[in-house]
Design brief:
The protein is mainly beta. The protein has no helices and ten strands.
């Protein structure tokens, strides 16, 4: 196992509903790749679930987590969500262990129209983790082709 030296995003999962309670992630409709939107002018409800790994040496320090949603052409659909987080060491922690912080964000997100989108999460200078999905009109019979060129996988 490689030693963790800085906080990093462990996972990003999109869900119909997600809650982070006492270090556990509770989720319904998680891991989707197609989001059916009834009205693009109103927006769509969904949750973003994240796991952040924090090494022993970075515990008890403030870290900035940035979550961004982009259209397939690279344009952000809204301002990024920025979260300050500070993971403490519990009383019975094992010297040197890393800690996983579970975060769930509920939102109503407006998309400019059907297409491919990407939710990315970044902490510090570490590489981001991404979840790519299609937003489709709820009553459409659109077929999905391959992910557009340049869209992160």
């Amino acid at each position: 196992m490689e030693e963790l030296t800085a906080p990093e995003i462990d996972f990003v999962i999109l869900a119909d509903r997600a809650e982070a309670v006492n270090g556990r992630l509770y989720m319904m409709g998680g891991g989707f790749e197609r989001l059916f939107v009834a009205n693009f002018e109103v927006g769509a409800n969904f949750d973003i679930a994240l796991g952040v790994l924090v090494p022993w040496t970075a515990a008890n320090e403030e870290h900035r987590l940035v979550i961004a949603i982009q259209h397939e052409d690279g344009r952000p659909i809204e301002d990024p969500i920025e979260i300050g987080m500070n993971v403490g060491r519990p009383p019975h922690a094992i010297l040197g262990q890393a800690f996983r912080s579970i975060i769930a964000i509920h939102g109503v997100f407006k998309f400019p129209g059907p297409g491919a989108y990407c939710v990315s999460a970044t902490i510090g200078s570490q590489p981001s983790r991404r979840a790519v999905f299609y937003a489709l009109l709820a009553n459409s019979r659109a077929t999905l082709g391959p992910m557009p060129p340049g869209m992160p996988h």
